[in-house]
């Protein structure tokens, strides 16, 4: 019996990136706008957030825009309109930050970690390898340490881990050292795989194409194949974080899947 009642898709902004970032070997002249999404689940055990979006404050403040985006070469910077702001989306569902009981973080890139600083009260679940990398000396400019350095009460996991009935954490390393995805069960929709950044686009899965960057190409390809196998085995719906075409067919919050 699943503990998950509803799934909300939260559109948290857009990134304007070369297509080569999404699909290895693409024409570097092609630029596309990809969504930033997070997912919210209403469960018998409280509200569960999967990823924490991008902190729009880093875009609004000129000094932070320069230090976090422009100077490291993230130019053009992401677009987060008022309607994209995660706090505003929670409010439209009737929630505030304090209502979130658990946040599961796929990985600590800045478009997934932005609002962790507003979730100090919540249970915060992260893969141990991701924690080690994000706090080490080799983390690149894609990790904004001021999003998560203040957190000292992570719940660190290893491998596949059940979170509650109807939510299973999947170890899908490759895009980053400790990347994780979720397999969930909804009462009417049925099985859903929230792949996060295993692949930006459905093309990555259909054609087994690597993302532009990976901490391990071998692991990244294995994770793409694993997600494909789970989707086929379970008859699951696959939802991604960054596919603009897929986004057009999704119900966005405050609408939901049940």
How would you describe the overall organization of this protein?
The protein has a single domain, classed as Metallo-beta-lactamase, Chain A (4-Layer Sandwich). By secondary structure, it is an alpha/beta fold. Helices cover 24% and strands 28% of the residues. The relative contact order is 0.19. A hairpin with a 2-residue loop joins strand 2 and strand 3 (46-50). The strands form two sheets. The protein has a six-stranded mixed beta sheet with strand order 1-2-3-4-5-6. Strands 7-8-9-10-11 form a five-stranded mixed beta sheet, covered by helices on one side. Belongs to the metallo-beta-lactamase superfamily. It comes from Histidinibacterium lentulum. Residues 35-242 form the Metallo-beta-lactamase domain. One of its GO terms (molecular function) is metal ion binding.
Could you say what the CATH architecture is? 4-Layer Sandwich
Question: What structural class do you assign from the helix and strand content?
Answer: alpha/beta
How many domain units? Answer: 1
- Determine the fraction of residues in helical runs and give it as a percent range: 10-25%
As for the CATH topology, it is: Metallo-beta-lactamase, Chain A
Low-confidence stretches: none
The end-to-end distance, rounded to whole angstroms, is 14 Å
Q: Averaging pLDDT over every residue, what do you get?
A: 97
User: CATH class, anyone?
Assistant: Alpha Beta
Largest sheet: 6 strands, mixed
Sketch the topology as an H/E string, one letter per element: EHEEHHHEHEHEEEEEHHEH
């Amino acid at each position: 019996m699943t503990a998950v009642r509803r799934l909300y898709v939260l559109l948290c902004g857009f990134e304007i990136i070369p297509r080569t970032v999404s699909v290895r070997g693409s024409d570097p002249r092609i630029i596309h706008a990809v969504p930033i999404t997070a997912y919210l689940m209403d469960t018998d055990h409280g509200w569960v957030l999967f990823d924490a979006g991008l902190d729009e404050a880093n875009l609004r403040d000129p000094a932070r825009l320069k230090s976090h985006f422009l100077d490291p070469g993230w130019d053009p910077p992401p677009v987060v309109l008022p309607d994209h702001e995660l706090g505003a989306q929670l409010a439209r569902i009737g929630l505030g930050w304090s209502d979130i009981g658990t946040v599961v973080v796929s990985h600590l890139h800045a478009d997934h970690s932005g609002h962790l600083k507003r979730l100090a009260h919540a249970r915060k679940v992260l893969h141990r390898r991701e924690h080690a990398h994000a706090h080490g000396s080799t983390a690149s400019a894609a990790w904004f340490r001021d999003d998560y350095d203040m957190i000292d009460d992570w719940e660190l996991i290893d491998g596949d881990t059940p979170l509650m009935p109807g939510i299973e954490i999947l170890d899908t390393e490759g895009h980053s050292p400790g990347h994780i995805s979720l397999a969930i069960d909804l009462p009417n929709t049925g099985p859903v795989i929230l792949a996060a950044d295993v692949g930006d686009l459905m093309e990555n899965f259909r054609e087994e194409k690597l993302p532009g960057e990976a901490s391990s190409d071998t692991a990244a390809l294995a994770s793409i194949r694993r997600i494909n196998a789970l989707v086929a085995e379970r008859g699951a719906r696959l939802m991604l974080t960054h596919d603009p075409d897929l986004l057009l067919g999704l119900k966005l919050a405050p609408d939901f899947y049940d």
